[in-house]
Design goal:
Blueprint (H helix, E strand, L loop, with lengths): L1 H27 L4 E3 L18 E7 L7 H15 L5 E8 L3 H12 L7 E6 L1 H11 L10 E8 L5 E2 L1 E4 L3 E3 L2 E2 L3 H31 L1
Parallel strand pairs: 2-3, 3-4
Antiparallel strand pairs: 1-6, 2-5, 5-6, 5-9, 7-8
Helix pairs in contact: 2-5
């Protein structure tokens, strides 16, 4: 009996553990696509674009001060951690006429970090509604065209998120007002999508070298 237990410990358990972690790598190695063909901000005519970039997208609305806490949370927990990665940007939409508020927010952010990856885009109310509607989420913009939620858009204009979240079921975005959510969920998901593209880049480089 003892010999059997020893054999199980030495041979069977390591195999089970390996299969478990292999399964985990398979399941969590790629962040699920929730919506395809998100409307690109490039259609507004400015230099900003989602395509070709991994984008963290937010909607500040017309009352920028009301979204300041969430923006600073995002800056501290996500931006500072990942902004040095190539092809990653943070795009915040707000209605036309709020440029002074945006400039103040950007200046305040700049007191804490390098703001080179923050992109603040002003647009018409209809344009903002169009971009948000293209995400096809179960969330809504408020009367100021704002939401505390931010979204991960990949280089091919797909909304990425969680199809099976323990709290929300399908998770389209991350509440920037919740430090716990940014720490416990968004950090992991940003890591996954960055790793996904790094792996794809390595594979392409290997093929090129061959």
């Amino acid at each position: 009996m003892k010999k059997t237990l020893v054999l199980i410990t030495l041979f069977v358990l390591p195999i089970v553990a390996y299969l478990f972690f292999l399964s985990g790598t398979y399941n969590f190695g790629k962040l699920p696509t929730l919506t395809e063909k998100v409307t690109d901000v490039a259609y507004l005519g400015g230099p900003e674009a989602f395509k070709g970039q991994i984008t963290i997208l937010g909607f500040l609305g017309s009352d920028i001060a009301n979204q300041k806490a969430g923006t600073f949370n995002l800056n501290e927990k996500i931006y500072k951690r990942f902004y040095e990665f190539n092809d990653l940007q943070f795009v915040m939409l707000s209605p036309n006429g709020n440029e002074a508020q945006v400039a103040t927010l950007k200046k305040e952010l700049g007191a804490f970090t390098d703001v080179k990856k923050w992109r603040f885009v002003s647009a018409s109310e209809d344009a903002i509604q169009k971009v948000f509607a293209s995400l096809k989420t179960d969330l809504e913009l408020d009367g100021q065209l704002a939401t505390p939620y931010v979204f991960i858009i990949d280089k091919e204009l797909n909304l990425r998120g969680r199809k099976i979240d323990e709290d929300e079921g399908t998770k389209y975005g991350f509440n920037a007002n919740s430090v716990a959510e940014l720490n416990n969920k968004m950090v992991d998901d940003v890591k996954i999508i960055l790793a996904e593209y790094r792996l794809a880049l390595k594979k392409n480089n290997l093929k090129t070298e061959e």
